[in-house]
Design goal:
The protein has about 170 residues and is an alpha+beta fold. The protein has a single domain, classed as Alpha-Beta Plaits (2-Layer Sandwich). The chain has six helices and eight strands; from the N terminus they run E-H-E-E-H-E-E-H-E-E-H-H-E-H. The strands form four sheets. A two-stranded antiparallel ribbon has the order 1-8. A two-stranded antiparallel sheet has the order 2-3. A hairpin with a 6-residue loop joins strand 4 and strand 5. The longest helix has 24 residues.
Length: about 170
Amino acid sequence: MKIHFTFHPERCVGCGACVMACINKNSIDVAKQQPYRLLKRNEYGDGAALNITWFVHGCMHCSGHPCATACPKGCFAVDRETGLVHLNNTGCVGCRRCEKACPFEAIQLIGRRAEKCNGCAERLRRGQLPLCVQACPRQALTADEKNRVVSDGLAALQEEMAEFLRRQQKR
C-alpha cells in the first residue's frame, strides 16, 4: 500500500497538534532541532480585511524522491510497500544536497548528519496513521493509500466535467 500525504490548507486552523505529536513521538529537543513537521503562519491584508492562512509542511515522501536522487552517498531508500522515503544517516557526510533538493524544507542537518521524518513507518505497518495525521482535529493533514487519492481525484474531476457538460446543454 503506497502512502500519499496531503495537506488541506482550507481545513487548517494553526492549532499545532501535528507539530506537538511529532515532537512527542520523536522526543525532539526543540532547543537543538526543529520538529520534522512545521507550521507556518501567513498574514495578508490589514484591519478588518486581515487574513491568516496556515501551512504545515514536512516530509511528504514525494514520489519523485528528489532527496534520494541528490544524495551522493545513497543514504536514502524507498520502502517498496509504503513508498515512504527512509534515511539511514550513518553514511551521511553533511553535504546538504538532500536538504537543498527537498521541495518541502523537510530535511535538516543535526550536527553533521541529515535528519528527517520517517512517516511513522512502524505505525503504518500496524495499520495505524502517522501521529501527525492522527493528531489533527480537522483532518488538514491526511495520509491515504495512493491509489485511493488518485481515484478520488479522478472521481471529483469526472463530476466537475459532468457538471460542466450539464451547464453547456442548458445554453
